[in-house]
Design brief:
By secondary structure, the protein is of the alpha+beta class. Among the domains are: 58-126; 129-194, Nucleotide Exchange Factor Grpe, Chain A, domain 2, CATH 2.30.22.10. It has four helices and six strands. The strands form two sheets. The protein has a three-stranded antiparallel sheet with strand order 1-4-5. Helix 2 packs antiparallel against helix 3 (106-125). It is elongated and about 115 Å long.
Length: 194
């Protein structure tokens, strides 16, 4: 009986030994198939990494675009508010100019000046700049010529008088300055300028 058990044990061990008793190359085929599977998995992993990097870049671009749009939306909203405040500033300036000489309006004038200064300071903090081109060259992008004066005493195109100041908000002209411009006689005719 012991002999029978040893034969059985020998038969059981032969298939599990890993040797290729028939020499037909099954082990090398299994190894090549495993190597092919590893290469395919490595390729898939590389493709997934590339896809992840593209998606991350797309997301970063999206985030930057949304942030830029939010900033621009905020500036547009602020510009609309400032544009509605500019006529109020003009009204203050006219009121202050009208009562410049009257002594009985002195306290009234001081109150107006304080309110005016607060309003101008607040819109300046928002990024608004006042265009005051007196004595500078006419710039059609920032100035609107309301009148022209033919003269040789001033340089051609020089702003002689500012009827109404202009305002710029982050490089965008909210309102051009309304000005009187010097022109040399014999220059462009009024019809050509208009």
């Amino acid at each position: 009986m012991a002999e029978k058990d040893s034969v059985i044990n020998m038969d059981e061990q032969t298939p599990n030994s890993g040797a290729d008793p028939q020499g037909d190359g099954n082990v090398s085929r299994d190894s090549a198939a495993a190597d092919g599977e590893v290469a395919k998995l490595a390729s898939d992993l590389n493709d997934l990494r590339q896809t992840l990097m593209r998606r991350q870049a797309d997301f970063d671009n999206y985030r930057k675009r949304i942030e830029k749009e939010r900033t621009e939306d905020s500036r547009r909203a602020t510009a609309r508010v400032v544009e509605s405040l500019i006529p109020i500033i003009d009204g203050f300036e006219h009121a202050l100019a009208a009562h410049r000489e009257a002594a009985e309006y002195e306290n009234y004038r001081k109150g107006f000046e304080l309110i005016y200064k607060q309003l101008v300071d607040n819109i300046t903090r928002l990024g608004v700049e006042r265009i005051d081109p007196l004595g500078k060259q006419f710039d059609p992008h920032q100035h609107q010529a309301m009148d022209r004066l033919e003269t040789l005493e001033h340089e051609d195109g020089q702003v002689l008088q500012v009827y109404q100041p202009g305002y710029v908000f982050h490089g965008r002209v909210l309102r051009p300055a309304m000005v009187r411009v010097a022109v040399h006689p014999g220059g462009a005719s009024k019809e050509a300028a208009n």
